[in-house]
Automatic annotation (TrEMBL):
<keyword id="KW-0443">Lipid metabolism</keyword>
<keyword id="KW-0275">Fatty acid biosynthesis</keyword>
<keyword id="KW-0436">Ligase</keyword>
<keyword id="KW-0547">Nucleotide-binding</keyword>
<dbReference type="Pfam" id="PF03255">
    <property type="entry name" value="ACCA"/>
</dbReference>
<keyword id="KW-0963">Cytoplasm</keyword>
<dbReference type="GO" id="GO:0016743">
    <property type="term" value="F:carboxyl- or carbamoyltransferase activity"/>
</dbReference>
<dbReference type="InterPro" id="IPR029045">
    <property type="entry name" value="ClpP/crotonase-like_dom_sf"/>
</dbReference>
<dbReference type="GO" id="GO:2001295">
    <property type="term" value="P:malonyl-CoA biosynthetic process"/>
</dbReference>
<dbReference type="GO" id="GO:0003989">
    <property type="term" value="F:acetyl-CoA carboxylase activity"/>
</dbReference>
<dbReference type="InterPro" id="IPR011763">
    <property type="entry name" value="COA_CT_C"/>
</dbReference>
<comment type="function">
    <text>Component of the acetyl coenzyme A carboxylase (ACC) complex. First, biotin carboxylase catalyzes the carboxylation of biotin on its carrier protein (BCCP) and then the CO(2) group is transferred by the carboxyltransferase to acetyl-CoA to form malonyl-CoA.</text>
</comment>
<keyword id="KW-0808">Transferase</keyword>
<comment type="similarity">
    <text>Belongs to the AccA family.</text>
</comment>
<dbReference type="GO" id="GO:0006633">
    <property type="term" value="P:fatty acid biosynthetic process"/>
</dbReference>
<feature type="domain" description="CoA carboxyltransferase C-terminal">
    <location>
        <begin position="39"/>
        <end position="293"/>
    </location>
</feature>
<keyword id="KW-0444">Lipid biosynthesis</keyword>
Length: 319
């Protein structure tokens, strides 16, 4: 388990409990040692509740970026059957930061598209840390066109710091690809639902999340820019990231009040990284409910619903 900065007191208590259990396995007084370990477990549980009771925006940002949170691949493996990945944008190449293809959700055919960050050094480099290049967005456009043609609902799983800002990506039309992907989201006449499972960064996230229904995991974030980037621009000081995180209103709770998203999916105590299977199950239930809300709607109504949703954004205030 990787502990975040604010979880250090918890790490100490859980570490001591584990040390006692290791001693118990070697000691004849195992019962007494186990009682002490159980007392530490209770203390750790209470501490975990206190730490996660009222997380500020910066701490939520840290949780959203936790390397042990389940990633797109985990959700696809657990929630979808008969997943058939499709590769390439038919123009330049394939982008491993974006995975997608045909699948079945609750035994119904669909198209699933998501950002994949990777789980270790090798896979993170291969997936470019979830930062898509133009070919990734053009692959998503191709898959959405296919879904529209065959009347299949589209499910997107968002987890990206933002689109890749490299020179090559810009030369191949990064901003144009993002804009066209966002436009395609608005055009398809099939149900489109999106779940932000970690980071929803900048236009790279919007290009997948311009959906009829948008959900966020409880400790995920969604914003126009990262707190560090915002602090560097506004205050010329990246150390102001905590202030920036608060000012950006990037938490699921704030965005639900602003009606940018439609629902918040509860996470296990301590975040999705502590009990990944429970988090994945909750996301599956959320997706099923969102698709049920849209079932039976005509293509024109789905397009109108989606456009109106985004045209009305900005009318709410948190003041």
């Amino acid at each position: 388990m990787v502990y975040l900065d604010f979880e250090k007191p918890l790490a100490d208590v859980e570490g001591k409990a584990e040390e006692l259990r290791a001693m118990a396995r070697k000691s004849e007084d195992a019962v007494d040692v186990e009682k002490e370990a159980a007392a530490l477990d209770k203390k750790a549980g209470d501490l975990l509740k206190d730490l996660y009771k009222n997380l500020d925006p910066w701490r939520k940002t840290q949780v959203a970026r936790h390397p042990d949170r389940p990633h797109c691949r985990n959700y696809i493996d657990e929630l979808f059957s008969e997943f058939t990945p499709l590769a390439g944008d038919r123009a330049f190449g394939d982008d491993h930061a974006v995975m997608g293809g045909l699948a079945r959700f609750n035994d119904a055919p669909c198209v699933v598209i998501g950002h994949e960050k990777g789980h270790d050094t090798k896979s993170r480099i291969d997936h470019n840390f979830g930062m898509a290049r133009p070919e990734g967005y053009r692959k998503a456009i191709r898959l959405m066109d296919m879904a529209h043609r065959f009347g299949l609902p589209v499910i997107t799983i968002v987890d990206t710091p933002g689109a890749y800002p490299g020179k090559g990506a810009e030369e191949r039309g990064q901003s144009e690809a993002i804009a066209r992907c966002t436009q395609k989201c608005l055009e398809i006449g099939v149900p489109l639902v999106s779940v932000i499972i970690g980071e929803g960064g900048s236009g790279g996230a919007v290009a997948f999340a311009t959906a009829n229904r948008i959900a966020m995991l409880e400790h995920s974030i969604y914003s126009v820019i990262s707190p560090e980037g915002c602090a560097s621009i506004l205050w010329k000081d990246s150390d102001k990231m905590r202030d920036a995180a608060t000012a950006l209103r990037l938490t699921a709770q704030d965005l639900k009040k602003l009606e940018v998203i439609d629902r918040i999916i509860a996470e296990p105590l301590g975040g999705a990284q502590r009990r990944p299977q429970d988090a994945i199950r909750a996301v599956g239930e959320g997706i099923a409910e969102m698709l049920k809300d849209l079932s039976g709607k005509k293509p024109a109504d789905l397009i109108r619903d989606r456009r109106q949703k985004f045209l009305s954004m900005g009318s709410k205030s948190l003041a």
